[in-house]
Amino acid sequence: xxxxxxxxxxxxxxxxxxxxxxxxxxxxxxxxxxxxxxxxxxxxxxxxxxxxxxxxxxxxxxxxxxxxxxxxxxxxxxxxxxxxxxxxxxxxxxxxxxxxxxxxxxxxxxxxxxxxxxxxxxxxxxxxxxxxxxxxxxxxxxxxxxxxxxxxxxxxxxxxxxxxxxxxxxxxxxxxxxxxxxxxxxxxxxxxxxxxxxxxxxxxxxxxxxxxxxxxxxxxxxxxxxxxxxxxxxxxxxxxxxxxxxxxxxxxxxxxxxxxxxxxxxxxxxxxxxxxxxxxxxxxxxxxxxxxxxxxxxxxxxxxxxxxxxxxxxxxxxxxxxxxxxxxxxxxxxxxxxxxxxxxxxxxxxxxxxxxxxxxxxxxxxxxxxxxxxxxxxxxxxxxxxxxxxxxxxxxxxxxxxxxxxxxxxxxx
Length: 413
Description:
Blueprint: H1 2-17, H2 22-29, H3 45-51, E1 59-64, E2 69-76, E3 92-96, H4 115-121, E4 125-129, E5 139-140, H5 155-174, E6 178-183, H6 185-195, E7 203-209, H7 221-228, H8 231-237, E8 242-243, H9 248-258, H10 265-274, H11 284-291, E9 296-297, H12 298-310, H13 321-328, E10 347-352, H14 360-369, E11 378-383, H15 390-393, H16 397-410
Parallel strand pairs: 3-4, 3-6, 6-7, 7-10, 10-11
Antiparallel strand pairs: 1-2, 2-4, 2-5, 8-9
Helix pairs in contact: 5-6, 7-12, 8-12, 9-11
């Protein structure tokens, strides 16, 4: 109980000091611009700091969405490792991160344990997306980063604009269909798109790690507190348009706390949100805090809260029939129907028994909707000890998830 209270207190302090971006809002009211001190980007950018330093070739690409957001997409070319086993000629693989992180989340582990680098070592053409609003994708053709209009987006815009833009760009660059790997929100993005018959013509296969299709059964303590108490909606009504947990002072304090031998920061920082991850080494916390968490629009947090409270997966609900009618042509938001996922598309799905965000009962609902899927085209993996963050930060994710996934890909060629 004492540990639980400490965790709740820690997150409460973080949310009060950082999430609403209070200083930023007040500075704009005074006409002085943003007053929060941003965490500085790693010198030389994504490629220099995270990829080339590990001996891999790297390319930075910019992709502009139809609604004007400029997304950074990082490419580790086919067989991008200078000393790797195979100079590749295999298909492109697009990796889409979840909420509150960016493309660097696939590179937090050492190269021999990282999914992105392992795919490159096996000859795949690897592409890492940085979603709108994250550190390397702050640009827009007309809006400024601290403009509230910049943050007026939810899951629906990621599905309608970000995914199609990145898919089309990679498809045009490579001339090949894509293998897609999503974690957490990344899985919901692609499933929502497929449910509306989007992107399917450019897809070779899909990997769903910690799939989030339904959220009604989530046991995530922090998610439940925010959703059940309408915290995001309250902050939005007060004019807080961005959910930002990254603050220089707080990050440095957390780094000091995490270096105390008696403190398990993997439990302190992740368990209330993701469930009890089994296999993350404490040493990864310094790397994580160097790069993550990343901001997201308050609107997408509200959207996720709606899915938690409602249990169904729908487009954003404006909680006003007239406004919904204006946006959707009907008084309630349309559903993303997972039954619409193509039944002959190769799918690799892996979920964990300790995952509080991708709860076992919610995954069961997804699997029920996939019952008519071609049995030769779907692999379902259950790892009892894994929780949500284990899929991108666990030292044994390669053994339990990445190697079986790469074997799954090899059977498709």
